[in-house]
Design goal:
By secondary structure, this protein is mainly α. The protein is built from 5 helices and no strands. α1 crosses α5, α2 runs antiparallel to α3 and α3 packs antiparallel against α4.
Length: 97
Amino acid sequence: SNKEERYIKYLNLFLQDDNFELMNKYVAEGNVTKAFECCHTLKGVVGNLGFRTLYTAVYEACELLRAGKCEGVAAIIDDVRDNYNAIIEIICNKLNK
């Protein structure tokens, strides 16, 4: 919507968001309910920010968790961890954080 200040605000909030880490924690613990909550929230955030590659992977993980399955979620998340970390690094560099 051409609101640069608003987008920057949400990029800063993304840097503070811990749903990626929490989702990994809950997947490792086998807690499908909590993992799904974190994954679903993360899916919305990355979708709204336009992070397409990350969104696709998080969507896949979310659908597995929605079906009550933790199996396969860790592999999906491992596949996008580099993308997630690259996004964080770019945001930090651009916003001088």
